[in-house]
From TrEMBL:
PANTHER family (UniProt xref): TUFTELIN-INTERACTING PROTEIN 11, TUFTELIN-INTERACTING PROTEIN 11-RELATED
Gene Ontology biological-process annotations: spliceosomal complex disassembly
UniProt name for this protein: GCF C-terminal domain-containing protein
Record lineage: Eukaryota, Metazoa, Spiralia, Gnathifera, Rotifera
Domain called GCF C-terminal: residue spans: 1-193
């Protein structure tokens, strides 16, 4: 054996072994600092021996004794500091840690935020597939139940369960959050909206209700295709109810399968037929005509789009049109607005 190696092994190591046996694993910082300071001077095989034969067995015993329900010291506070030194050597500890966490979550309910505080530090430590599987097994079913029981009531909305659910959106796999919203939230949300629209409602209240719910969705969720479709479905319901019956006129020389031009002027007038001989054949044409009628500027803004839709200047407002619904930019967000209300706002 190399004389220096012999010196370290016979003289220095016994001292270190004795110190480690007296060491409190819940207080790792001093020992970590000591090993890091000596690491450049230690032969690799001695360094490996320290981590594998001295440190790991003690950490393993401490994990076995750890109880997540009663232990006041979070386990990540005394295991994670070892990650820079031990790296994958800690991997065998993760399965027993997950097993103990899963047992602790059996009676957990989403109203208890402490579970998230315990789990979150492990999100970047466990492999992504392992983390997602753990979330889908032990967290997602509880979130599903919460949203199944969630009551949507525009008159007196209680949002606590919603906040319990949505607080997990950066922790639970996004696909799972989207699935929960699609299957448990939006069917009820659309049903409530449909009932409300058929009770001679105040449309400004509905607009505020719609915008309020939209504002509760984090950006990562609201940009998902499924969520966009559900929100658009709600907008279409609102627009149809506001517009009333749609008058159609055939083209002057109909082909074998006649096309129709939607009379948006009649829609704007809530289904009252217009006597004008000019039929506005698109919703954009109607917006342009109303701008002209009120001496308002209506021009596309160069190189300005939102989600692929052209943004226009309408008077002093910026708008875009999506599926015959006007969205106006205000308070750093796009909100739906009736054409008549837009005109009153900018005139």
């Amino acid at each position: 054996m190399d004389p220096y190696h012999r010196l370290i092994w016979d003289v220095w190591m016994p001292f270190l072994r004795k110190s480690i046996l007296e060491w409190n694993p819940r207080q790792p910082d001093h020992l970590i600092d000591f090993i890091e300071q000596w690491a450049p001077y230690l032969p690799q095989w001695i360094f490996d021996n320290i981590l594998d034969q001295l440190i790991f067995p003690i950490l393993n015993r401490e994990v076995e004794a750890w109880n997540p329900l009663t232990d006041p010291i979070p386990i990540h506070s005394w295991t994670h500091p070892w990650l820079p030194l031990m790296k994958d050597r800690l991997e065998p500890l993760y399965q027993p840690i997950r097993a103990k966490l899963s047992q602790a979550l059996q009676n957990w309910q989403p109203s208890d935020s402490s579970a998230k505080a315990v789990l979150l530090p492990w999100q970047k430590v466990f492999k992504q597939s392992t983390w997602d599987g753990f979330m889908n097994t032990y967290i997602v079913p509880k979130l599903v139940t919460t949203m199944q029981q969630f009551i949507i009531d525009p008159r007196q909305q209680v949002l606590d369960p919603w906040h319990w659910f949505i607080s997990w959106y950066e922790v639970v796999p996004l696909a799972s959050m989207i699935a929960i919203l699609e299957k448990t939230f939006f069917p009820k949300w659309l049903q409530v909206l449909n009932v409300w629209l058929n009770t001679n409602p105040n449309y400004q209240e509905i607009q505020r209700w719609y915008s309020g719910w939209r504002s509760l969705l984090p950006l990562a969720i609201i940009n998902h295709t499924i969520i966009k479709e559900k929100l658009t479905e709600g907008l279409v319901m609102i627009d149809r109810r506001i517009s009333g019956p749609v008058n159609v006129q055939p083209t002057p020389q109909p082909p074998p399968l006649p096309n129709v031009n939607v009379n948006y002027e009649a829609i704007f007038n809530r289904g009252v037929a217009t006597t004008s001989s000019t039929v506005v054949s698109s919703f954009k044409d109607l917006v342009e005509k109303k701008a002209s009628d009120h001496n308002l500027l209506f021009l596309p803004i160069t190189n300005r789009t939102f989600e692929g839709k052209q943004v226009y200047q309408f008077g002093n407002a910026n708008i875009y049109i999506d599926k015959n619904v006007i969205f106006v930019y205000e308070n750093n967000q796009w909100v739906p607005l009736r054409l008549n209300d837009l005109i009153h706002r900018v005139v």
